[in-house]
Amino acid sequence: MFSLWGGSPRWDGPFTTNGDTWSRRGGSGQVIPEVPDDQCCPCALWLRRGVNLTEASGLRFQYSDRLWRILVCPSCRTPLSREEGAGARCHGCGTAYGHADTGALDLRLKTAKKYELEHELGSPLLSESGVDFRPLPVNSAPEVDYSSVAVPPHMTKELLSYFPRAKGPHSMMLDLGCGRTRHRGVCEHAGFEYVGLDYDSPAAPILGDGHSLPFKDASFGFVLSVAVLEHIRFPSVMTREVLRVLQAGGVYIGTVSFLEPFHGQSFYHHTHLGVYNTLRDAGFAVERIGPNPKWPVLTAQAMMSLFPKMPFVLCRALVAPLQWLHVLWWKLGSVVDDRASRNARLTRTAGAFFFVAAKTDSR
Ligand SMILES: [Zn+2]
Questions:
Q1: Whole-number mean pLDDT of the chain?
Q2: What's the pLDDT at 134?
Q3: What are 191-208's pLDDT values in tens digits?
Q4: Among the four residues 23, 225, 331, 337, which has the most C-beta atoms within 10 Å?
Q5: CA of 97 to the centre of ligand 1 (A)
Q6: Between 305 and 33, where is the model more confident?
């Protein structure tokens, strides 16, 4: 999407990838950056290898009949008809949707669309039960056993322990902002048929806009969006779209930037209250929101902005003394002030937050 060392950040669209930032536009032969899997940093500053777009253009995707049955026009939500070898057509508004040069079905909006939004004003922010915003503990009753599965980038075993199990053999899940589809394995391990959508990634089977998802209501039992919400122009709109495409009882799990630096066209970095408000305002029941304790602001800033292209180990070593002093200072503070807890420190200094929410009714 942009090069740190040359050129300026460029706006590519209303919904960017989760940071496995590719620039598909600009003609063939363009280099698509790859981010090493061991990098926590979800931005594109760590370009060590490249894939030539000409090769990537050879990608083709398979779409199941089940998937075709849930596809709708992103403009008018009329079910799409499959055009053999030529994409899809909407018989409601007449729009034709083709394949991108990556081979993906391109269901991004072809024309601008109005979206009306209602907010409830004057209601209290926190519910009766409240949310304590602690780092996520391991779920004591996980639905899926991930003990033998490697934890993918940007996740922890704690977050994985909240993944739902597919309710049936035909349950589908949506990886919203799927990037290189690196979360496919853990989603399929839970029994879901995986559907990956991104605005602009050559690895995405479907290209689409998070503000106007090309799926019928109540299509998915699970939606995942990892490091996506901060790249969304209108977070309330996308969150309502996620609610719409989820089935009653469906789960929405994700991560969002907090004190990471500006990266990859990020718009709104969320505090814990910001995530909570966005989810509640959309109609979600919030189960967990917690800072990622393994991704402190100092590391995030060092890797993503202060020392780009520096090896991860060296980055961490550079900020380690300050991080250590910071933790020590808060520990000393906790002796004289109860408010100086580890939880309080982490909610103020995390690079990103995790969230777990559910759709509790059939809206
Ligand atoms: Zn249409």
A1: 84
A2: 94
A3: 999 999 999 999 999 999
A4: 225
A5: 10
A6: 305
Distance 218 CA to ligand 1 centre (A): 19
Q: From ligand 1's centre to the CA of 92, what distance in Å?
A: 5
The CA 111 to ligand 1 mean position distance, Å, reads: 11
Ligand 1 center from residue 244 Cα (angstroms): 18
Ligand 1 centroid to residue 67 C-alpha, Å: 17
**Could you please report the per-residue DSSP string of 4-59?**
SSSS------SB--SS------S-TTPEEEE--TT----STT---EEEEHHHHTT-
Collapse the DSSP code of 1 into the 3-class scheme (helix H, G, I; strand E, B; otherwise coil) and give the result.
coil
Residue 81 domain-assigned? no
83 in a structural domain: no
> Containing domain of residue 317, as a range?
1-62+146-363
β 246-257/220-226 pair status: parallel
| Residue 133 within a domain | no
Model pLDDT, residue 169: 87
- Residue-wise pLDDT for 153-184, tens only, equals 889 999 999 999 999 989 999 999 999 999 99
In a domain, 304, yes or no: yes
Q: How does residue 126 score in pLDDT terms, banded at 50, 70 and 90? A: confident
> How many structural domains compose the chain?
1
Q: Supply the pTM of this predicted model.
A: 0.84
Report the distance separating Cα 91 and Cα 84, nearest Å: 15
What's the gap in Å between 308 CA and the centre of ligand 1?
A: 44
CA of 74 to the centre of ligand 1 (A): 7
Measured in Å, residue 90 CA sits from the centre of ligand 1 at: 5
